[in-house]
């Protein structure tokens, strides 16, 4: 991400405000559109961190994604206070805000680069973890643990800080002797430091080392490892040609999702980082003054595009998780209490998954009902169930004892729990106890199933019948 040369001491001899060219366009593009995208990204990253730290979602891979959300959030916050605030200051001519901006700019600039480095290399570590999980599952179980993930995240954080520690010394604010009153816009001037102006530092670190570490190495790693992952899953599909259709369809879905994730990650990373490398290379090859004079509009909007693409890159992960993560979408329903017809918001947290599975099961049963109900096996089974139900009803009516409930033990049904059984209800007893089970003469409390895999297997057995 680039910092604009907002004020320099020679551009305004009258010590007044010297705004950027195309200020209105930049204000709309960065301060308004970029801020709106950043706010959405901050909301998405915070939601991602909340969802991935829930007990049902905790695993080493999601720990990496949580760290990625934290780095992206820091990057979006610093992007607003650096780039969005810059054009707000010029557009509103707020001098006090300008002084405050100069005060924290050097630190925010370094933190933004630290966050960007951490975000890039957390993405790389997630890809490596997925590669081990697909290609070497035994090694993945041995090495990719929660403790190992925490150590890796700590190592990435330390690397990001060490690699960008010189960013704290690349900018400096100097006092302009021509406007020494301290109350005019040009009294304080933002300038590159002597370290940033050093040709060896600019050629070795700012150009080659930064672009190798931040662009070439992570991009090639993502491309190669994700290609291997997609190829491995496709190869597994070819080996399972004689297995059941359901298992093959599941692997096909995984292959399709892995391919889409590969295309999405590589494409977004390429678009959001490639142009920054090109512009940096042009700044080193060509004279900076030549770019600013002869190609002024191209150079100006290229720098703004780099900043905006960095904001988009840090805000898009939440959308990717929503598109490809089924469990992520289910957890999002639980966290925010939203769902089909808004019904899940009134259910306890432990029952919302059951409602979600029951709703999917009912929708599947409606699609399967014409094929099942027209079969002779279904017709014979229904006749048998009717005969059994009539005999049970007669027996229960002859042996039942009707008595009014006592005031102390009155039963008040709260609401039906949709967990796949039509007679499964929740009842409130007078003494504040809540019992969950089947209302049958030989009642025994049943613990609700929480395994999605069990529900899937039971549905597959139903379909096969």
UniProtKB/TrEMBL annotation:
Q: Which PROSITE patterns match?
A: G_PROTEIN_RECEP_F1_2
**Annotated G-protein coupled receptors family 1 profile domain residues:** 44-321
- CDD domains from the xrefs? 7tmA_FMRFamide_R-like
Instruction: Tell me a Gene Ontology molecular-function term this record carries.
Output: G protein-coupled peptide receptor activity
Q: Which InterPro entries match?
A: 7TM_GPCR_serpentine_rcpt_Srw, GPCR-Ligand_Int, GPCR_Rhodpsn, GPCR_Rhodpsn_7TM
Chain segments carrying region Disordered: 444-465
Which Pfam families does this chain map to? 7TM_GPCR_Srw
The alphabetized UniProt keywords are:
Membrane, Transmembrane, Transmembrane helix
Please identify the protein, giving its name as recorded.
G-protein coupled receptors family 1 profile domain-containing protein
Q: Which organism is it from?
A: Steinernema hermaphroditum
